[in-house]
């Protein structure tokens, strides 16, 4: 009786283990297949746009379709930069996004510090910031357009940068408060006992230490401005257009003749997104949940 | 020991006692928010009570709530835009949640290379809606688009198909592009939620003989419930504001079938220049979003209470 039991137990155990391992292997295979399908779906469009932007004209119109151009060329990028003033609008996007990024940081950091150190505003301020983040941009652009029109601020860098700066304050403050709360107060107190003023300790002690956090906020603010569309299309004119507004010029009059330049502008327009996705992996959830990249 | 520590900290506490400092630090941002957000919003509400129309002229008179009653009772185009927005939101949310959960579960099983795969799948979420829509607009292209080309090559379709020819198809196309654009966000939120579930729970369940399906159903789902709710609420609020994607992909067509709330308001304000009426419409949207935001706050507070 006992011998049967001892002999039978290992057999069923190995059989169960075998089945278990089989299921595990099968599950792993399915996992990789599923992820591969997801990667193709989410990255396929980028691949197609990139290859399209490198195709010659005869490759657009070829059937069977050319998926990978045999002799890739940068002619469409050259055409975009010269014929469609792409260089101008690309620079506009860069300048407006960078200025708004710095301004948003400069204004938000002291506010975040005030909230993190002294619990300034209490729950009210955090609720206000949340409500501002959820606020539909369309509600803001109507009065802003009328005010800017009266003040002559439409079609100006100043008007756009001021608007973007303020719109991203809630987001920047929210993230910065998190970083500042993690910062040990003791270091700051030590600096202040040694004779630093509050402002000096913020500039000389706090900022250098939380610099990585500041970089995270800065990159998110940059990409949010880079991606913004509604304010840009209403407030920009011929000189101040951004890349997002440039793209609209390819949707009228039939896309077919513009495939080259349109795809080249999309490639340039999504470049920062790739950079941010890779550099800020750890912060993507927070940044996307709070950030105003949608519209 | 305790007393010496106490005296050590006293000077720092003394330095903290400057009543004006918190206000001084916070004032630049608060001033700018007041000037460029709060004041314009108040002005816009005042505007919504007038009949100011830039196409007619600068004169306007006070008409009370008439803009609001017109929007909510007689304006067929606006009422249809509510319906159109809902018709986009509902399927987009369902698919984004299911797909996002699926991919998050797959990623959660992977041990090697998870960060790089996650980052790659997350890229679409970082892209501007305008760029996403432009890429897909070209892919949907009738004669030279990737979708028709691929379909013909694989023998699935044998004609040049127009993906925006009927209202339902256009809505489906918008939903598909939004799924591509925002499922990564849902995936990231849910993956973070999955990774915060203690592994001990699964080990205990396995010891008790629970199958994978059982532990998913009675551990993962209940613990992920609030994370899912938060993700869905954020997406719902952002989808009620959907604009750039519509502008590029369909421009509201065909026949206004994809005209959403924000897009309709944009047309009223910046194509017809009926500023007062557009303000009123935007306040209807603000009111809707505010209700959703209140629900969102309730949910996230509950989640925090659960976590604590």
Question: Could you walk me through the main structural features you see in this protein, from its secondary elements to its overall organization?
Answer:
The complex is a heterodimer of chains A (295) and B (308). Chain A has 295 residues and is mostly helical. Chain A contains 15 helices and no strands. In chain A, helix 8 runs antiparallel to helix 11. Chain A is globular and about 75 Å long. Chain B has a single domain, classed as MetI-like fold (Orthogonal Bundle), CATH 1.10.3720.10. Chain B contains 13 helices and no strands. Chain B has helices at residues 2-16, 21-48, 66-74, 76-109, 114-126, 129-139, 146-153, 167-195, 199-207, 212-240, 244-249, 261-270, 275-307. In chain B, helix 2 (21-48) crosses helix 13 (275-307), helix 5 runs antiparallel to helix 8 (167-195) and helix 12 (261-270) packs antiparallel against helix 13 (275-307). The longest helix of chain B has 34 residues, at 76-109. Mean pLDDT of chain B is 87; it is low at 1-15. Chains A and B meet through helix 1, helix 4, helix 5, helix 6 and helix 7 of A and helix 1, helix 2, helix 4, helix 5 and helix 6 of B.
Notable features of this structure?
heterodimer, A: 295 residues, mainly alpha, MetI-like fold, 15 helices, globular, B: mainly alpha, 76% helix
């Amino acid at each position: 009786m006992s011998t049967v039991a001892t002999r039978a137990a290992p057999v069923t155990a190995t059989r169960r283990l075998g089945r278990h391992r089989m299921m595990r292997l099968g599950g792993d295979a399915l996992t990789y297949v599923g992820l591969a399908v997801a990667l193709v779906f989410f990255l396929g469009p980028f691949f197609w746009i990139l290859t399209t932007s490198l195709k010659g004209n005869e490759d657009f119109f070829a059937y069977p379709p050319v998926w990978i151009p045999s002799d890739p060329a940068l002619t469409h990028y050259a055409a975009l930069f010269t014929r469609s003033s792409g260089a101008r609008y690309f620079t506009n996007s860069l300048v407006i996004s960078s200025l708004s990024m710095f301004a948003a940081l400069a204004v938000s950091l002291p506010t975040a510090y005030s909230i993190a150190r002294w619990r300034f505003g209490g729950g009210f301020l955090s609720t206000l910031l949340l409500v501002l983040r959820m606020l539909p941009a369309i509600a803001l652009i109507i009065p802003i357009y009328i005010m800017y029109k009266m003040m002559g601020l439409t079609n100006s860098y100043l008007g756009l940068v001021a608007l973007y700066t303020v719109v991203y304050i809630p987001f920047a403050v929210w993230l910065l408060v998190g970083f500042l709360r993690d910062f040990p107060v003791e270091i700051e107190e030590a600096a202040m006992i040694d004779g630093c003023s509050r402002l000096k300790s913020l500039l000389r002690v706090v900022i250098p230490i939380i610099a990585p956090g500041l970089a995270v906020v800065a990159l998110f603010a940059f990409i949010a401005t880079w991606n913004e569309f509604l304010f840009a299309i209403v407030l920009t004119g011929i000189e101040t257009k951004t890349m997002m507004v440039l793209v609209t010029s390819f949707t009228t009059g039939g896309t077919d003749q513009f495939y080259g330049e349109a795809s080249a502008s999309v490639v340039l327009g999504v470049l920062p997104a790739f950079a941010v996705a890779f550099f800020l992996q750890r912060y993507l959830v927070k940044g996307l949940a709070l950030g105003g990249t949608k519209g | 020991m305790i007393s010496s520590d106490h005296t050590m900290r006293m000077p720092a506490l003394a330095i903290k006692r400057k009543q004006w400092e918190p206000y001084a630090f916070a004032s630049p941002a608060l001033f700018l928010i007041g000037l460029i957000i709060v004041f314009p919003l108040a002005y816009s509400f005042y505007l919504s009570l007038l009949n100011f129309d830039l196409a007619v002229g600068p004169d306007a008179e006070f008409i009370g709530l008439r803009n609001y009653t017109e929007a909510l009772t007689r304006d067929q185009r606006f009422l249809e835009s509510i319906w159109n927005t809902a018709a986009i939101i509902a399927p987009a949310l369902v698919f984004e949640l299911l797909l996002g959960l699926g991919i998050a579960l797959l990623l959660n099983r992977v041990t090697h290379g998870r960060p790089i795969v996650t980052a790659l799948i997350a890229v679409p979420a970082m892209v501007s809606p305008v760029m996403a829509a432009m890429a897909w607009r070209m892919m949907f292209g009738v004669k030279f688009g990737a979708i028709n080309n691929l379909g013909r090559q694989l023998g699935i379709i044998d004609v040049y198909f127009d993906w925006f020819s009927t209202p339902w198809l256009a809505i489906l196309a918008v939903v598909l592009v939004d799924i591509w654009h925002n499922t990564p966000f849902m995936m990231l939120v849910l993956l973070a939620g999955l990774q915060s579930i203690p592994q001990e729970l699964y080990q205990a369940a396995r010891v008790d003989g629970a199958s994978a399906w059982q532990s998913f159903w009675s551990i993962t789902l209940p613990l992920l419930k609030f994370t899912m709710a938060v993700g869905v609420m954020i997406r719902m609020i952002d989808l009620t504001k959907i604009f750039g994607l519509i502008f590029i992909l369909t421009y509201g067509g065909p026949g206004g079938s994809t005209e959403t709330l924000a897009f309709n308001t944009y047309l009223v304000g910046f194509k017809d220049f009926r500023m007062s009426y557009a303000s009123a419409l935007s306040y209807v949207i603000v009111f809707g979003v505010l209700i959703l935001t209140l629900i969102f706050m309730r949910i996230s507070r509950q989640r925090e209470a659960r976590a604590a």
